[in-house]
Design brief:
By secondary structure, this protein is α+β, with helices and mostly antiparallel strands. It has one domain: Nuclear Transport Factor 2, Chain: A. Helix content is 34%, strand content 40%. The protein has four helices and six strands, in the order ααββαββββα. The radius of gyration is 14 Å and the shape is globular.
């Protein structure tokens, strides 16, 4: 499946191959900020922080059809267990052009937002707009 390389990078917590995985102008829609992140460099920064925040992360399901893949995951942020989906859209060159993440329940999403804010601030980054 086209999403296998992305899944392997997440599971290994290694985004060193961002040029192979993501289109340069990728759009990333986070569950915790309204405005999307734009561009490969921002995505690499955000995903690098996410894999540090998530504990006991594991993918449960992986489904692809056409140019879209959906990966269902389960993880923990502190004391909060959450489930989510990574929705990936692929371009003609097989790289990811759009990524949307959705998370539930709301208490888990809030824990994720707080942990991500701390991680991004420590890295000298911030949420878009």
């Amino acid at each position: 499946m086209r999403s296998d390389a992305f899944r392997a990078a997440v599971e290994a917590k290694d985004f060193s191959a961002t040029g192979e995985l993501f289109a340069p102008d990728i759009t990333f829609r986070s569950p915790v900020v309204f405005k999307p992140y734009e561009g490969r460099d921002q995505i690499a920064l955000v995903l690098g922080a996410v894999v540090q925040v998530f504990e006991d992360f594991r993918y449960l399901e992986q489904v692809e059809t056409g140019d879209v893949a959906v990966l269902l995951f389960e993880t923990r942020v502190g004391e909060k267990t959450l489930q989510g989906v990574d929705i990936l859209k692929f371009g003609a060159d097989e790289r990811i052009t759009e990524m949307t993440v959705m998370v539930r329940p709301m208490s888990g999403m809030h824990a994720l937002a707080e942990a991500m804010q701390r991680m991004l601030e420590a890295a000298g980054a911030s949420a878009p707009g």
